[in-house]
Amino acid sequence: MSKGLQDMPLEVQHIRSALLREFEPRISMEDFEQKDPTERETALLSRAVSAKAARILTDCTSDEAAAGVIDGRDDFGIDCVAFSTSGSELWLIQAKWKNKGTAGFDTEAALKLVHGLKKLDNRDLDHFNERLQLLADRVHGVLRLPTCKVNLVIALIGDGRLSVETQNILNEAAHEFGGLGRTVEYRVLDQRDFHRAVREDLEPQPITLKATMDREWYTRETPYKAVIGEVSADQLAHWYGGKGDDQGHDKGHGERLYDRNVRQSLGLTGVNQTMVESMIEDPEGFIYRHNGITVQCDRIEQEYHAKRAVGQPTTLILHNASVVNGAQTVTSAFRAYERDPEAVADAYVLVRIISLDGAPENFGRSITKATNTQNHMERRDFIAIDTVQSEIQKDFRLSLDKEYVFRRGELDPAPESGCSVTEAATALACMHRDSSLAVRVKGSTNVLWEEGRGGAYTRLFGQQPTAQQIWRAVQVLRLVRDRLTELRSKLSGRPGSVVDSGSLLVAHLVFQRIGRDKFDEPDDEWAGVFADVPAQVDAVLTCLIPMVDTLFTSKSFVTSTFANEERCARLVAAVLGMLERGTGPDSPMNLSAFIEGASRNRRRRPQTVRLLVDHDVIRDGTPLVYAPSTAEEVAIGAWLDADPRRRRASWVNDRKAPLLWEADGKRYSPTGLVSQMWNAADWKEQWSTVQGPKQWKVSGEGTLVDIAERLWRRITDESETEDESPL
């Protein structure tokens, strides 16, 4: 980002990027060919503002708006002219652009605009420039109508406030030129209006769906309207991939159907392939084997084929609709329809349609989150309904003209075109000051989506990072990985193992060396920072490889060292300290404190729940059973047997509360749940200490402690003694 853009407010940057993309190829700048590039861009942006104002106020296209730009010599204060489709309304637009968002409109500008209106009203067009001459017939056509309406538009990249004197000039003009059925009004479009418009341009166009229910169905009106009934699978297929008629009516919407879903369709997974075969081989029985789908819409319009009664054939028009649960079903219906349309027409799906008309703001989001249970759900799926992610996506498009994808099932963009939320979150985790995030991500990227206090997702996205910060972080991470790949081919033994196991910690160290403030530098200064990344990797690795042996001895297990948050924190402090002081033979770095601590260091297994969650060992929803000791069985066995649900729980990958107790539907830590059960059973002689992870079992796997021990042994099991070759 240049220095000029660095001083530009973010909203103005968004507007600038959007205007240049839309109008730079369309607006003539021949009169500025010999001018300074900065002057030329300012003029182009001013003209683009006037054209965008025309688009905001009328139904014209970008090309039509650009054709209406007359700014230049002899424009008499009018930068753009626009017309209504009916031909009875005229917009005369004057625009002002300021890089800092401080454009204003003074009395001189107002008088100039009014003078232009007067010349047009007097049919005095000979002194206008050639661009206005091309529009003269249309201007005359509007002005000669006895009921025409003329709009004076002030379009500003600023706050839009007008002085009292300026308002008086415009009001007097409206009074003077109005009357006898003709009206003249003025309107101000300010920076907020333009920013809102460029953001709305990124919003998908609303989808309207038709759903015919010719079998049993029922409806409820309170508290919110909903219709539930059977819809033939071929209708779902047409929603997704219908060809439409010559005018494009009833054309399929593809993946846009799922814009409010937590993920896109996942292609032909095992579950989805089974649905395709089921629709074709036994269409009549499909509805008995399937849970149905959920559709949200802003409004339901209902038409009856004959009798107006519940259960009678009806067609529902769903305005601004989205399939919020059942993306895999709809896509599978389309795949099946391609193979056998007649069979799919005989398959029916239970469809629940919910209108959000009159519902609370977060009602739709809560439905989306609650209904997505058919295919295995990953924690990252639910971030798709977090508005922060859609805001980042818009920021990527407006600020960088790049893609940012965050729904599972969407294809990752080409590396030069953008990034995915997983890559972005990994880069931000490495960039974070807390090295434990990079350590945890190395174990499993699933930890990136933990929400709540202390959760990685909340720490990374709780305060929305800008598109520039994310993109630069991703670029650094990619460059670090590229350099490590180069170096890895030259290393073996322990150094090679450090590169393999410590790649994200190396990235974390490079990010700390760069410093977070550098990610907001202008483009020319950032280029130097970015170019220095490979050298930073070399310096970090030169210190890191021997530091592992210095702190933890040459007999330490490299893999387990880089899986241990405490050890990695010590490595980070030591390496950054050494790099700060220099790495030469006379380095003042004093390692005595680290060496003294190393003699006391013992390789300790992380806490059970944390280890299991960070490595995503137990799948969400896995059943667990309570395994009480003999003493516990005697003390609370009768209470447990009174309700069999008291012995059962299911696993949730969450560090703090991973057990969902079937008895009350609440979440607990293993120890917390055992303590809760003892108290509920009124066991007065209960022990003072509780070891919950040893008392909850996964069938066929053993207790949580057993599973964690096996995992830790696997992590620390390095069967071969590693070489100690130098870097």
3D structure, described in words:
This protein has 30 helices and 20 strands. With about 725 residues, it is α+β, with helices and mostly antiparallel strands. The chain has a 6-stranded antiparallel sheet. It has a 5-stranded mixed sheet with strand order 6-7-12-8-11, with helices on both faces. A 4-stranded mixed sheet has the order 1-2-3-4. The model is unreliable at about 260-270, about 375, about 585-600 and about 720-725 (pLDDT under 50).
Keyword list:
727 residues; alpha+beta; five-stranded mixed beta sheet; 30 helices; 45% helix; globular; disordered C terminus
Radius of gyration: 33 Å
Which structural class matches the secondary elements? alpha+beta
Approximate shape: globular
Number of strands: 20
Terminal CA distance reads 37 Å
Share in β-strands: 5-15%
The major pleated sheet works out as: 6 strands, antiparallel
Low-pLDDT segments: 262-271, 373-377, 584-602, 718-727
- Helix content percent band: 40-55%
Average pLDDT, all residues: 84
Q: Count of DSSP helices?
A: 30
Largest sheet strand order: 18-17-16-15-19-20
